[in-house]
Write a structure and sequence with these properties.
Elements (H helix, E strand, L loop, with lengths): L6 E6 L2 E7 H6 L32 H9 L8 H4 L15 E2 L5 E2 L3 E4 L9 E8 L2 H6 L1 H19 L7 E7 L7 H21 L3 E7 L3 E2 L2 E2 L3 E11 L14 E5 L11 H16 L3 E6 L4 H11 L4 E4 L5 H5 L6 E5 L6 H6 L2 E7 L3 E4 L2 E4 H10 L37 E6 L6 H10 L3 E6 L5 H17 L2 E4 L14 H7 L2 H12 L4 E5 L1 H9 L1 H4 L11 E3 L7 E9 L15 E8 L3 E3 L2 H9 L3 E6 L20 E5 L5 E4 L22 H8 L2
Parallel strand pairs: 7-8, 14-17, 19-20, 19-21, 21-22, 22-29
Antiparallel strand pairs: 1-2, 3-4, 5-6, 6-11, 7-11, 9-10, 12-15, 12-16, 13-15, 14-16, 17-18, 23-26, 24-25, 24-27, 27-28, 28-29
Helix pairs in contact: 2-11, 5-6, 5-7, 13-15, 14-16
Length: 674
């Protein structure tokens, strides 16, 4: 019962057992007041807080190179690729965009997951934080953290008024020091100022006042996380799309106290949103710590499209942090209403040459990329030395395409789920979209009885199915000693072994293994031999990626053979762009075995470079697979294993990577039974 007593009372059998004042609850029983003293900001040169990360007095080319190596600006590719960006078949923007996957996205954009069908609405999330600015002025650091997070969301297409934020704070232990208490107080004032002026609310947060150890203190930290929704089809990404397009700057005006002119900022953000809705903004990126220079370079990296900067842009403006500002790519110079409302100014144009040009300066993008990729290369490797050579595998076309002896208008596909499997829903959805009827069954292993019951259920479902599909994941945490062993152990059970044998040899069925499923098929001997068999020391295997870490990115694959019914909708030589996500994907076999598999048409697909040639080079060959092998089939083609996750490519995903296309894998399997 809600009362006006301002007390919490709990009763037991009509007797009060708890009676607390609301003030005690609000304070968690602790004193909620302290004396604060806010110190003046520690301004930099010329009394400014927003100063370039490099010395603008030096050589401009050196400034560009130094800027891209900055720890807060440098490439995080090696770290990003350790997180699965394609799981759930929902990522509208991949973390790194462009054909070369090197333009960092301003925000996470992902479709809302549905049990059936595809959502038109996507969620977006971004953040803002400048540790250097926050250390000089917690007020300005928090204020611009909010501004940066909001601007990044607007840059992908979210309407400012619909953005909500969460603030995450971390400060030194204040004790009874008034000046220490003043830092979180100033930061909250700064965040509150930005939230109020931008007319966006914060709906939650988390603070910690324990960032001290002996004489070590964390810098004043308030990270702003912004969230919103938008139509997935209307989102805009950051990489330049084509040469000969106009490049605009939407600037931020500041007061003498280095506070944004929020009225102008709101108008600019809303005007850019209108431009995105009109379809006139081809690419957009929020300007951050590295100023226009950082934004332009990163927009250029993804598709290797250069930019020529107008001569009237001075060096200080190029490198100065300008939170709230945006760089836009527009098809042609325009004076559209939204451009005028945003106060946008043309600052250059995109060019076909892979260069940054300004006045007499020309910097090749590869020169900029080198320091950008080197800073964290020793911590999160993003390249590796290739091992082994490439055999030119002749294309194999299956001229006598067979079909199942037992037809089915809607073949039944069984997708078993093992502890650690994480792709079953994506796989089942892809199968049903292709016309199959998918059945998911969980293999439980907590007790001996559960294992016995699950084994019985597994055999029953295999007996009812025309297709057995082993989806991706990390069965049993990829232990012991490698991936797929748990699944292989289950399938070596005599009853399961017999069920698989009946599926293949009595019912003319198909088997598909993707990623973890491919690993299991190899460890069972189903690939490449076509039957469950004991392995020998020279049997092909799949082992750890040569780069020594998990890899999640898009890769190009070339169909080498259409022996497998799963590839009946492809042609030899077709090139597809598909996501991979694995820590163990390197196919290893003796050269003579690889040659034999190639001659029999069992090497189904290879990793290829941007020119379509098989390669051992990272990142095109993400795991160092021998002879660039990505997919292998059984001798008759009815069993196929591959590392690429075709099931994760649905309409509207990976919009910031061009030429996304996967083989119609599941449609080929369904066609086999029709």
């Amino acid at each position: 019962m809600v009362t006006d007593t301002n007390r919490l009372r709990m009763y037991w059998h009509g007797r009060i057992i708890l009676d607390l004042d609301r003030g005690f609850l609000d304070s968690h029983g602790a004193t909620q007041h302290a004396q604060v003293r806010i110190q003046s900001p520690a301004a930099g040169p010329e009394g400014r807080l927003l100063v370039p990360r490099v010395s603008v007095a030096g050589d401009e080319k050196s400034n560009w190179l130094e800027l891209m190596a900055d720890l807060n600006i440098t490439s995080q590719q090696g770290l990003v690729e350790q997180f699965d960006a394609s799981i759930g078949a929902a990522s509208v923007h991949f973390p790194l965009g462009g054909a070369f996957q090197e333009t960092p996205a301003d925000a996470m954009v992902a479709k809302i997951p549905l049990e059936k069908g595809q959502a038109a609405t996507a969620t977006a999330m971004s953040f803002g934080f400048d540790p250097h600015l926050s250390a000089k002025s917690p007020f300005h650091g928090a204020m611009y953290a909010v501004v940066e997070a909001v601007t990044r969301l607007v840059a992908v297409g979210v309407f400012r008024a619909e953005i909500r934020l969460s603030l995450q704070e971390y400060f030194e232990k204040p004790g009874h020091d008034e000046s220490r208490w003043g830092k979180p107080y100033a930061a909250l004032l700064g965040a509150h100022t930005a939230l109020t002026e931008l007319e966006v609310p914060a709906i939650g947060g988390k603070d910690s006042m324990s960032g001290s150890f002996n004489d070590l203190d964390v810098p004043p930290t308030l990270v702003a996380f912004a969230m919103g929704t938008l139509e997935a089809e209307s989102t805009v990404s950051a990489e330049f799309k084509a040469p000969d397009h106009a490049v605009y700057l939407v600037p931020t005006d500041h007061t003498a106290a280095e506070v944004p002119d929020f009225q102008h900022l709101r108008a600019g953000l809303d005007a850019v949103h209108h431009g995105i809705q009109y379809g006139q903004v081809l690419a957009a990126r929020a300007v951050g710590m590295g100023g226009m220079a950082e934004a332009l370079a990163k927009m250029a990296f993804g598709n290797r499209i250069g930019v020529s900067i107008d001569a009237d842009i001075d060096t200080r403006q190029l490198f100065r942090p300008d939170y709230g500002a945006m760089i836009l790519e527009v098809a042609a110079e325009t004076d559209a209403d939204w451009i005028r409302a945003a106060g946008a100014k043309k600052i250059g144009r995109t060019i076909a040459a892979s260069e940054i040009r300004r006045k007499d300066l020309a910097i090749v993008l590869d020169e900029l990329r080198e320091p950008w990729q080197e800073t964290l290369a020793g911590v999160f490797p993003s390249r590796t030395q290739p091992e082994g050579g490439i055999e030119e595998i002749p294309l194999y076309r299956n001229e006598t395409r067979r079909s199942a002896a037992i037809k089915a208008a809607q073949p039944r596909a069984f997708v078993p789920v093992f502890p650690g499997t994480n792709c079953e829903y994506d796989t089942a959805a892809a199968l049903e979209s292709a016309g199959a009827r998918a059945c998911i069954q969980v293999f439980r292993n907590r007790t001996p009885q559960e294992i016995e019951d699950s084994t019985t259920a597994l055999c029953r479902e295999i007996d009812r199915a025309q297709m057995l599909v082993l989806s991706g994941g990390f069965s049993a945490g990829d232990e012991p000693e490698g991936s797929g062993k748990f699944i292989a152990t289950v399938f070596r059970n005599p009853r399961v072994h017999e069920a698989v044998d009946h599926l293949l040899n009595r019912r003319d069925g198909l088997i598909l293994g993707i990623c973890n499923g491919f690993q299991a098929l190899i460890k069972l001997g189903l690939l490449p031999w076509g039957k469950i068999t004991d392995l020998s020391t020279d049997s092909p295997t799949i082992t750890y990626n040569r780069i020594g870490r998990h890899v999640a990115r898009m890769v190009r694959t070339r169909v080498v053979s259409t022996l497998s019914p799963w590839l009946y909708r492809s042609r030899p030589g077709d090139i597809h762009l598909v996501p991979v996500s694995h820590g163990e994907g390197r196919f290893v076999a003796a050269p003579e075995r690889i040659h034999q598999l190639a001659q029999s048409g069992q090497l189904a697909a290879q990793y290829v470079d941007m020119s379509g040639h098989p390669t051992m080079e990272y990142p095109h060959n993400p795991n160092g697979s021998f002879c660039a092998v990505e997919a292998v089939s059984s001798p008759d083609g009815r069993i196929l294993g591959k590392m690429g996750h075709n099931e994760r490519l649905v309409s509207g995903v990976a919009r910031n990577i061009p030429d996304i296309a996967a083989a119609e894998l599941f449609g080929g399997g369904v066609d086999y039974f029709r």
